[in-house]
Every structure is written in C-alpha cells, then in structure tokens.
Amino acid sequence: MNTSAIRAEKRRRRANLSDEQIADVSLEIAATLWRQPFMMRSKRIAAYCAFDGEVECRFFIESAWKRGRHIYLPVIRNRSLAFAHFCAKTALFPNRYGIPEPVCAASRLYKPGEMDVVLTPLVAFDTRGNRIGMGAGFYDRSFRFIKNRSNWLHPRLIGLAYEFQKTAQIKASTWDIPLHDVVTENCVYAIR
User: Fold this and answer.
1) pTM for the complete prediction?
2) How far is CA 108 from CA 75, 83, 103, 192, in A?
3) What is the bridge-based pairing of β-strands 188-190 and 181-183?
C-alpha cells in the first residue's frame, strides 16, 4: 500500500472512534508515558492539540503540570515549527489548518532543540520509527538537525498512536526523521 492509501485508511479508522474511545486510549497512553524512564528526567515537554481524531494530549498535559513540568505547544512559523510555553491561562487561536496554537510573541518562542521530549501526532507508524503524518512535513523539517548529530542528546521524539495505526512497513524518504519511540494503548515501541 502506498503512503496516500495508508494515510486514507488510518484516518478513516480514526474518524470512526467515539469521544469515549479516544479518551480511554489517551488516558492509558498518558499513564504509560509517566512510567517511562526518559519522562522522569524531562522538564521541557512539547505536546500538541489533538485534531482529526488524534490521540488526545490533554490528560498528559494536566498530569505534567501537577508534576511541575513545563509544557510547550507547536506554532507554525514559515514552514517549520517553534514551540510556545503553554499553561491553563494561555490563549489559543486556530492556525491555517484549524489546529489551536498558543498566542505568543515570536521573541518568546523556543527552538525544537530546546525540548527534552516531543510528543508527536501521526497517522501511521512502523516498528522502525517511520511515521506518516498529515503530509505537510512540519515535524520532519523542524527536527532535521537530529540527522546531522553524531551524539544524540535531545529531544526524544515520541509518537502517540492507536495500536491500529501500526503498519507493516513505511517506505521512508531521505527527509523523514524517525521517531525514537511510539506509545500506543497496548505497547511501547522503543525504536533506538
């Protein structure tokens, strides 16, 4: 199956999930994330506002605040992402795709490399860390610096997915940035 067909099939399955199913899986994934050693050391965590049936981050975000962690949300800048600090009082405004973003001055944005962990949405994934997103390439462009480093420091890229989003193999392009882990309701796929 090609990328477009995989994307269409997985999005269709995601669209059939009820709000209750999304919440149940999202709560399970949030709990699983906190059991991971890398999360215990992380202070700056980038999450996202769920869109189009994606795994919901709000449960994780609320527990992160209670644990004293700093949460950041992506903001589209040109063709890449920057990250804005996010708290309960942060104003959100829909971007050009209809996804809520923090209202934030450009001088207060953080670079992708300043995050410890980045939770990424996805449409499909394989067990080698390849990811199919919505197709705009924002995450790949924003984190391409990871490919050029000989020593991995951070951020750790964690895909959040439903188990049914796993696919046998995704043909990676040269510009694709693989995930370090994928967390579903059934499993933590540690890629490297």
Assistant:
1) 0.94
2) 11, 9, 10, 32
3) antiparallel
End-to-end CA, the chain = 25
Cβ 50 vs Cβ 57: under 8 Å: yes
Whole-angstrom Cα distance, residue 187 to residue 192? 15
CA distance 72 to 83: 6
Q: What's the CA gap between 24 and 22, in Å, rounded?
A: 6
Quick one: pLDDT band at residue 83, thresholds 50, 70, 90? very high
| pLDDT more than 70, % of the chain | 97
Helix axes 19-34, 58-66, angle to 10 degrees: 40
Of the candidate CATH numbers 1.10.630.10, 1.10.3980.10, 3.40.50.10420, 3.60.10.10, the domain formed by 3-190 belongs to 3.40.50.10420
Does position 153 have pLDDT exceeding 80, yes or no? no
